Amino acid sequence: MQWIERCLESCFSHEVIVVDNASSDGTCSFIKERFPNVILLEQMENLGFGQANNIGIKYALKKGADFVFLLNQDAYLNDGALEELISTSLKYPDYGIVSPIHLDGPGSTIDRAFSGYLNYNANKDLLSDYILGRKIKVIYELPFINAAAWLLTRKCLEKVGGFDPLFFHYGEDLNFCQRVKYHNFKIGVVPHCFIQHDRDQRNTNRERYFKNRLLEEEVMSFKLRFSNILSKESSKEMDFFIENKRKSMFKKLIAGKLEKYYHLKKLVKQLKIVAPKVRYSYENNKKVRLKFE
């Protein structure tokens, strides 16, 4: 609720769809009163980041959209940013995802987390061009950009599909980027195009959310690793991974390390539950879709 007004004001000249994940802080009433032209899709339960975005994307595509721009509620469009992203996408149709540079909330410096996507291994030319005073390219290819501000082409969405329901929150954007590359689309950042990502407080909340939640992070890591269709790891290797965790569990028991034993016991149970879903996602996400699903 603390960001929504500024977020929607930054988008006032565009058609906006808001998918509300069963919020209880008055967000829906505020939007209806303050931004009556916004298309508000209210959900009865929290569907998670990916599935809520899928609802909005599906709505936009049914209305004939050639592009869908995803924007987090704690991010704000800079003037002309969306127009520049669309113009760039039209010039470079091999890019399925086009992103602006993410600044921090005040817009005074680059967003700390986003800066990690611009490193040498991601694209050696981007920083080199700036530092050495060379001509700046229109777009730079990267292996991953988080989904806080993605411009997606209709062609990409219809071929790749939506966010995988395997992921509730966190990890879905990395999985989607893996699939985008598998289906021969590129991911790029437009260096002269900006949004402001006001997520300092949200980062604090995420740290609190995952504090003492090693189990959730290990399960998510397992999902990301074995649902990665760019990887050559087989279903047998996934089963071998679970079996190794099971063996480690009993070693901890024999060694009298009961806290680690109980942790691994819970982990193995969770991995066995999600393994069939991961196996299905791995095979299903290889398919070329004829329409958005």
Question: Can you put this structure into words, describing what you see?
Answer:
- It is a single chain.
- The two termini are 30 Å apart.
- This protein is globular.
- The chain has 2 domains: 205 residues, Alpha-Beta Complex (Spore Coat Polysaccharide Biosynthesis Protein SpsA, Chain A), CATH 3.90.550.10; 71 residues, no CATH class.
- α10 packs parallel to α12.
- It is an alpha/beta fold.
- The chain is built from 12 helices and 8 strands.
- Strands 3, 4, 5, 6, 7 and 8 form a 6-stranded mixed β-sheet that branches. A two-stranded parallel sheet has the order 1-2.
**CATH architecture title of the largest domain:** Alpha-Beta Complex
- Helix/strand-derived class? alpha/beta
Written as H for each helix and E for each strand, in order along the chain, the element string is HEHEHEEHEHHEEHHEHHHH
Oligomer status? single chain
Text of the CATH class of the largest domain: Alpha Beta
CATH topology of the largest domain: Spore Coat Polysaccharide Biosynthesis Protein SpsA, Chain A
Mean of all residue-level pLDDT scores:
92
Distance between the termini: 30 Å
- Shape descriptor reads globular
Work out the radius of gyration: 21 Å
Described by strand count, sense and barrel closure, the largest sheet is:
6 strands, mixed
Number of domains: 2
CATH homology superfamily of the largest domain: Spore Coat Polysaccharide Biosynthesis Protein SpsA, Chain A
Estimate the helix proportion, in percent. Answer: 40-55%
Strand content: 15-25%
User: Which parts are unreliable, with pLDDT below 50 for 5 consecutive residues or more?
Assistant: none
DSSP summary: helix tally: 12
Number of strands: 8
